[in-house]
Inverse folding.
């Protein structure tokens, strides 16, 4: 099956972690991705079929990639995590080329308006994680969240700044810096932060390099409950069971594998909710260990 940018979505419930409230806004869904694309051994797929079905292994041994932004409210802050691709942007991959989705309308249906947002955090600067940083108004890109501070990890910013020493062009990310990052900087709304940065008492940016050189996660800890907005540390939860499985490309595969292993260890130790960028409903889950066997349990909403 092909892309479904306007596909119906199970209504996004509010997730609560301590005093933190988490909602989300859907941009688009890509369905029918063959599980074989993960490159996992068929025996590994069979051994994990029981927990992958029905959310992470669908009919015909496929799975779906979900593209949504998270809206986190805690400590008096309203934080948007990973603002998707954005409308009307050119892209070499057809599913993302010239999108026209009711993302802002869906965003407002959560009860939060763009002007209410206090912070925006991009786990990394791929097109589908920072696009709605801006929108096209009067022929120019302007910040979508006019009252927010945009938290850009300096290492990641320098990786994508065409004038930076770490810059390396990637065809599917051409023009993203100019459309979605530079206008925020020019508007004076960008804060370049270290890859470990305290946002508020309950929120901390933490390093998670590999997928990109400056990829980071957002850790939430409130009233003894914890969670990780993990971005593209994983695209499918089977990568937490076998961290060496790689889907798509990355800047540093060895670092990406080590980041997954570290996330697994921390999440098991703390019973933390893992909230990646692209999981289908219910979009998040927790790792469980029984003896030597680890599985991923979908969040129960």
């Amino acid at each position: 099956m092909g892309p479904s940018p306007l596909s119906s979505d199970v209504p996004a419930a509010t997730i609560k972690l301590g005093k933190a409230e988490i909602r989300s806004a859907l941009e688009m869904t890509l369905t029918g991705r063959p599980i074989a694309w993960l490159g996992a051994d068929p025996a590994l797929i069979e051994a994990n079929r029981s927990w992958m079905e029905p959310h992470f292994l669908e009919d015909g041994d496929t799975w779906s990639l979900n593209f949504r932004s998270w809206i986190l409210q805690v400590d008096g802050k309203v934080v948007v995590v990973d603002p998707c691709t954005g409308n009307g942007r050119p892209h070499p991959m057809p599913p993302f080329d010239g999108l026209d989705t009711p993302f802002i309308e869906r965003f407002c249906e959560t009860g939060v308006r763009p002007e209410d947002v206090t912070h925006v955090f991009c786990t990394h600067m791929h097109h589908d994680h920072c696009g709605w940083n801006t929108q096209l108004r009067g022929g120019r890109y302007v910040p979508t969240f006019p009252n927010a501070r945009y938290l850009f990890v300096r290492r990641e910013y320098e990786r994508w700044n065409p004038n930076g020493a770490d810059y390396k062009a990637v065809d599917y990310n051409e023009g993203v810096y100019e459309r979605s990052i530079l206008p925020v900087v020019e508007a004076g709304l960008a804060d370049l932060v270290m890859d470990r940065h305290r946002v508020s008492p309950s929120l901390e940016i933490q390093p998670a390099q590999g997928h990109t050189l400056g990829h980071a996660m957002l850790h939430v800890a409130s009233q003894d409950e914890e969670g990780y907005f993990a971005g593209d540390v994983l695209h499918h939860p089977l990568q937490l069971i076998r961290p060496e499985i790689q889907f798509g490309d990355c800047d540093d595969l060895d670092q990406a594998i080590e980041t997954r292993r570290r996330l697994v260890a921390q999440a098991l130790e703390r019973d933390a909710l893992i909230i990646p960028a692209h999981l289908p409903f219910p979009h998040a889950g927790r790792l469980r260990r029984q003896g030597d066997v680890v599985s991923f349990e979908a969040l129960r909403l």
User: Anything to note?
Assistant: Residues 1-11 have pLDDT under 50 and may be disordered. The radius of gyration is 18 Å.
